[in-house]
Write a structure and sequence with these properties.
- The protein is of the alpha/beta class.
- The protein has one domain (about 10-320): TIM Barrel.
- The protein is built from 13 helices and 9 strands.
- The structure holds coproporphyrinogen I (1CP).
- Coproporphyrinogen I binds next to strand 3.
- This is Uroporphyrinogen decarboxylase.
- It is an enzyme of class 4 (lyase).
Length: about 325
């Protein structure tokens, strides 16, 4: 998850004096930051250190990642002309990604590296809103007022995600995750019409590589069957829906049973072990209802998280699930 490293003193030390986007273009930093949580916690997979807006920056979209805010776009998309700079990356646009992934795969040995990209809706929300948003009002308004422009934008962003994920998989990433973090802002009806076909295009294009594909969003309880149907092999679940209920929703409409990923509430990281341990037990038990379960937080690690608590969770999950 984004910010996984932000709670680590060793992350803050190496990032000192380097902007987020510059860090993403330096293989020495990308490799070190990606490895830090693996080294410290012994987690079962690494997530590549990058950001969902990096491929846009790499093709010249004028944007920044502002500390404490997130991605900020200089010229929000309002017309077809604004789509011009939004084009897929070529491997030569992001040589540092290929270099970093290759180096990571060799250093990680048997630990898989998860590559990732932002899904068309979530990336579009930054391009249309101009930055982070609470209600995605401009994005939803654009979908309904100018569906042609919306679909043209989302189609380009599907191409961006396909190209960026392909670079990572071709360099050796062994699984991919498509982050549609903010899709939960949409009704199932809008999701099905305006978003699902574009995310489905991404999953369909990646199928040729045969790597597992994970699909994640926050607040997506109502969308789980549609997000599963988009073509993911694994469905991410935040903390709002128990995993057994998530499985029920995914299969209720005739969907194939799938592994799930989640779903510890990140807020509980500061609640103390007596509150956390029963939650871990509950999640592991409910995860048994699925075809497979990847234990994870329901969203990103808060920057204030105590690394010792995270370590304790990883140890407990390993011990309990081995039993
Ligand atoms: O944690 C890691 O090291 C993994 C690398 C990673 C990932 C998977 C980063 C680094 N970003 C992401 C994905 C990402 N970026 C998502 C999808 C996952 C999620 O929902 O968390 C999203 C929505 C973003 C956009 C973004 N980038 C935000 C959110 C803004 C908002 O709308 O609320 C923020 C704060 C960033 C900056 C960012 N990206 C990553 C880090 C470590 C940071 C913080 C940088 C800093 O503070 O210096």
């Amino acid at each position: 998850m984004r910010q996984a490293g932000r709670s680590l003193p060793e992350y803050r030390a190496v990032r000192e004096g380097t902007t987020m986007l510059e860090s993403c273009t330096r293989p020495d930093l990308v490799v070190e930051i990606t490895l830090q949580p693996v080294r410290r916690y012994g987690v079962d997979a690494a997530i590549f250190f990058s950001d969902i807006v990096l491929p846009l920056k790499a093709v010249g979209v004028d944007l920044e990642i502002k500390p404490g805010i997130g991605p900020v776009i200089a010229t929000p998309v309002r017309s077809f002309d604004d789509l011009d700079p939004v084009r897929p990356v070529e491997p030569s646009d992001v040589p540092y990604v290929t270099d970093s992934v290759k180096q990571l795969v060799s250093e990680l040995g048997g630990t898989p590296l998860i590559g990732f990209a932002g899904a068309p809706f979530t990336v579009a929300s930054y391009l249309v809103e101009g930055g982070p948003s609470k209600d995605y009002a401009k994005t939803k308004s654009l979908m309904h007022s100018d569906p042609k422009l919306w679909h043209a934008l989302a189609d380009r962003l599907a191409e961006v995600a396909i190209a960026y994920l392909s670079v990572q998989v071709e360099a050796g990433a062994s699984a991919i995750q498509l982050f549609d973090s903010w899709a939960g802002a949409l009704s199932p009806r809008d999701y099905a019409e305006f978003v699902q076909p574009h995310s489905a295009k991404v999953f369909a294009a990646l199928a040729q590589y045969g790597v597992p594909k994970i699909h994640f969003g926050v607040n997506t309880g109502e969308l789980l069957p549609l997000m599963s149907e988009a073509g993911a092999d694994v469905v991410g679940v935040d903390w709002r829906v128990p995993l057994d209920e998530a499985v029920r929703r995914i299969t209720a409409a005739g969907g194939a049973p799938k592994p799930v990923q989640g779903n510890l509430d990140p807020a509980l990281l500061s609640a103390g072990w007596d509150a956390l341990e029963p939650e871990i037990d509950r999640i592991l038990a409910e995860g048994q209802a699925a075809l497979g379960h990847i234990f994870n937080l329901g969203h990103g690690v808060p920057p204030t998280a105590d690394p010792e608590v995270l370590h304790q969770i990883v140890r407990a999950v390993h011990e309990k699930s081995a039993r």
